[in-house]
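Crash report, auto-generated. Payload:
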Amino acid sequence: MLYLDYAASTPVRSGALNILEQSMRDDFANPSSAHKFGKGLHERIESCREKFLEMMGAGMDDRLIFTASATESNNMLINGLGLEEGDSVIVSFAEHPSVLAPVRQLETKGVRVKELPLLPTGEVDNEGLFALLEGSVKLVILNHVNNQSGAITDICLLSREINKRNPAIHVHVDGAQGFGKVPFSLREGLIDSYSIASHKIGGPKGIAALYLRADVTVAPLLYGGNQENGLRSSTQAAPLIYSFFEAVREAMETIDDSWTYVTEINGLAREGLEERISEVQFPFSGYTSPYILTFLLPGISSDIILRHLEQRDIMISSTSACSSKEKGTSPVFTALHLPDKYHKFVLRVSFSYQTTSEEIETFCQTLADTYKELKQLMA
Amino acid sequence: MKLELKTMYNVLVINVDELWLKGMNRPMYFKAIRRHIRELIKAYHPAEFSSRKEEQRIVARSDTAFSPETVQALLRVPGVHSVAPARRVPVSYDAVMPAILEELETLQPLPATFKVDTKRSYKRFPMTSMEVSREIGAKVLEACPQLKANMKTPELLIEIRILEQNIYISTGRLKAMGGLPFGTGGHLISLLSGGFDSPVASYLMSKRGCRLSFIFFYAYPFVGDEVKEKIKKMVRVLGQYQRHSTLYVIGFGEVQNVISKHCQTDYRTLLFRKAMIECSNLLADKIKGDALLTGDALGQVSSQTIGNISALDSFSKRTIFRPLVGYNKIEIINLARKIGTHDISVIPHDDACSLFAPKHPVIRPNMGYLDRFHRETPLLEHLVKCLDAAEVYDVALTGKLTRREK
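Recovered output after restart:
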């Protein structure tokens, strides 16, 4: 099978998998138990937490909470800041649903939502953003790497600039696609919170994290046994946490080498497609993550291409709105300034350090053949 | 359109349709419909029940009251003319009025007008139907002076049925599907698409007692599984008008591809339909189908011109039933609403036919070309392969689909 949908999810790294297996077998106590078995697990969780924060460049009293998913992390943060009627939130409409949906929920309670302006490349329109920072704004949500366009946001710079203009604004970063891939350190910015997904960087599913700056107050989503310092009651999933941490450790260790390698792969893919398919277009060509390559093949609905490729055991991604009620347009693509008529032609491939150049070659050739065949058929 | 009953009924009097037509076949038809009714009540009703033939009706009785769902499901049994949730009393004139008063109690507030209608099949009963109606009518007026009698268009119809062993009283007889019992009309292969027409055509033939096996041509990878899910949703409804049925999902993308590569663009859609008919006949050979069934109406889309319909017929070894051929679109849509398929039909989906659709589809095909194509591009092997690889679902009378293992 040729897998090119790493942005959706990734295989568990072998180190992380080994730890997960062993831990699932042996570390079955409740980390909140009073005996030494449980306490031992608890200590190790704390050690992971500390090292995790260190790797992120966090400050002394900053915190990291383990959650079950980045969706949970985003929901917790957005709902937990205590925003009220009259407050404003600035968020891009190209954001992931786990960010937009809780924000829309706040809107029903009278919180105002302002669209974070983007350039046609998908990058943030910085000046446009600064112009929106008036008194009622309490929260700005930045997308470290957008999962559709791949556009990278300079979260350190923007968080500092926002803080300059209004230190009361909370800056939250949705880091699901950026963490462990785009090198950065919290030390360089003034980021108030950051959500991380384990399964995007070779960790297991079912575990994630939320970074919180020292002075940030957030209300919990879950109440109960007061785990995670009262912020996220639930029995801590020790095996998942250890495995997650191992994946993070590995990802951080190899972050620069991976970046270089994947940049090459991305280049090969782009060239490979351009060479073979004259009609291919790459709508997002600013500062984008090499891990994501979005393109469009005009004339053939993306979901048809997806299904032809899957018949040949090649997995890529399409967010074609063909199956949605309004056939063909997606609000995310509209926010990314993609003309309506192109929405149903958008395809995305995403890579990892495991992607080989042979895979790219096979993918490009198969896609080109498929596209040609379909164009003839549907001409 | 959920049914609501004003009170709990332990008796259902089920009237059978078109009995006068049956003659020598009457016992066979009765057996068929009784079996269907029994299986249905067994599936919907949680308690023990009896179903007995009383004169020309089937009476279901249970210690546990029948739910509105059960009654509503009975209305979907082909051959049932009507269902009357009823009260049962002994065969005695004196027993009638108390039961009627109890019934009227549950109907508060009462409508303005009423009529009593009596049928007496037990000829030894001491009064005639007219006498009973008259006397009971008078008593009802006495008990409920606000009511007025109306012989022509009463809002409330009190029905008294005097049979040999029981008298049944009901006020809310419900009109059912009518037609002929399941299984008495032959076995049809029903070609289903996601539109309005084929489901309505299926309903019409269910009504005539036909057993249906549904066949859906799934143009994967040109369409995705939303279409398949839509068809399954459709069959969950249509299966409720059958005692049991089957759905065959045939992967047809490959066949459409082959046809498209070898034919003139304008003939594409027509040739797809031809292949579907051939495949349906192959299925009929396999599962003993008597005829095919489609939702074609005359002149709606290009493949339904009289020229194209005739051409397709010439390539089918079995008759193709087209019950909608005389219907207007509005009539079809209204019927779709009535039978519960309208809202499923409007669910948007990618239509493979329109993806391949030629700009100028042929309206009056050249038979010579079709014959030549038929000879030069044999599809038999492909069609047999598709059929063998079909996804098969058994459909229960509740509409539940169960995938058949290979």
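Post-recovery validation: The interface with chain B takes residues 301, 303-304, 307-308, 310-311, 322-323, 325, 327, 377-378 of chain A (CB under 8 Å).
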